[in-house]
Amino acid sequence: MHKDYLGKWWEVSVGHKARIDMTSLAGKTKASAGRLYNLSQVNEKRHFLELLHRLCEHIDEPPRRRGRPPLSQRVVMFAILFKIYSTVSSRRFMYDLESAFEKGYIDRVPHFNAVSHYLQKEEIKNILIDLVTLSGSSLAKLEQDFVIDSTVIRTPRLTKVYNRKLMRERTVHTCVSLHAITGARTKVIAGALTSPRYAHDTRFFCPLLSLASRRFKIERITADTSYRGSNNVEAAERIGAKVFIHPDRRTRTDGPDTSWRRHHRAYIDEREQFDEQYAKRLNVETVFLMLKSRFGREVRSKTLPAQLNETLAKAVCHNLCALIKAVYLMNVDPTFGRERSIHSETSRCRAEGEVHTGSAEVRQPESSVSAEAGRGSVVADERRGTAAVVRSKRATARRSGVLAHARCRPARGRRQPAAP
Description:
This protein has 420 residues and is α/β, with parallel strands linked by helices. It has a domain at 139-299 and 340-363. Helices cover 47% and strands 15% of the residues. It contains 16 helices and seven strands. The chain has helices at 30-42, 44-56, 73-86, 94-102, 112-119, 124-135, 205-212, 230-238, 259-269, 271-278, 282-295, 304-330, 342-352, 354-357, 371-400, 402-408, and strands at residues 9-13, 17-21, 145-163, 168-183, 189-196, 220-223, 242-245. Strands 5-4-3-6-7 form a five-stranded mixed beta sheet, sandwiched between helices. The chain has a two-stranded antiparallel ribbon with strand order 1-2. α8 (230-238) links the parallel β6 (220-223) and β7 (242-245).
């Protein structure tokens, strides 16, 4: 089994064994901060595997059904996120995955095609969305100011677009959009969503706010002009956050008394305070630069679901790297707490429609389902699956004519009448 390197004492090795007391770093100088930053980068991969193993333990396995036993969802998510972190192809990544198996982080080594196959499934998108928020929850105590923005990630697919200025067609790469709400201090991604390139940014303000408010206390939030509107301002006011959205030049102060009108009047009256807070919006550009420079400016996947999932996986890996750096420099406890499982929370979010409806209200967790109800649902699923298999076999036999010959066959033990 692997050795636990996480806790109040971190064992690091840079030519020799040393131990660092993380409680004595409050008055660190520039030289000591630089030394700790070097140690965090030298030992990042070792701590990344430990944090990723702990993060995947929060994923619940789906109920077992008949048929071939599937791969463990924890093993699959560990392999996907570790592959994105390694920035190599699936075949070259197998040696790293075997090393993780030898250290005890996973109980089996999946095939390289299995990793790519599971990355194309749309079911893991909601799991990755929850993993983004959970991976940054350890830094929630350090963040009060948040920034919302989006960026594009290039894909290997090519398409033709018409350039009106040059009066001809051009061949360009298609892109997917990453919408994120990030912390201004630790550069953590508190919530992330993905979409095709031409989806408007203002549609993702409320869903991102709903994701981040589950584990982060949002006091101030900054966004650019594309997020302006009364709905976004009201959603932020419902969770007690103050909004700093730069208004458009065409915005007017007269008209009905809406949330956006009040926000615009506050922008005019408190311009210096607004400009000082709005300057923190540049931190989100730093986050996107860190993510692209570390994990690549493009994705490797060919299909759209795999491209969206790979983009979310980059955000999870970025949060784990930011957490490792914060442990060395900011005395952060690298634990994710006793959170509920990812699978159950994803099912609740899908049922209530929090992510897709744009609601920014913070809902309290519901009571867990009883064991009897859970067993009853599993039995019902097995019965439905068995009935579907029987119907499929009957339909296949009917098409091949087997049932027709069976009906004409005489019963066993009866004597056929003699021919005339």
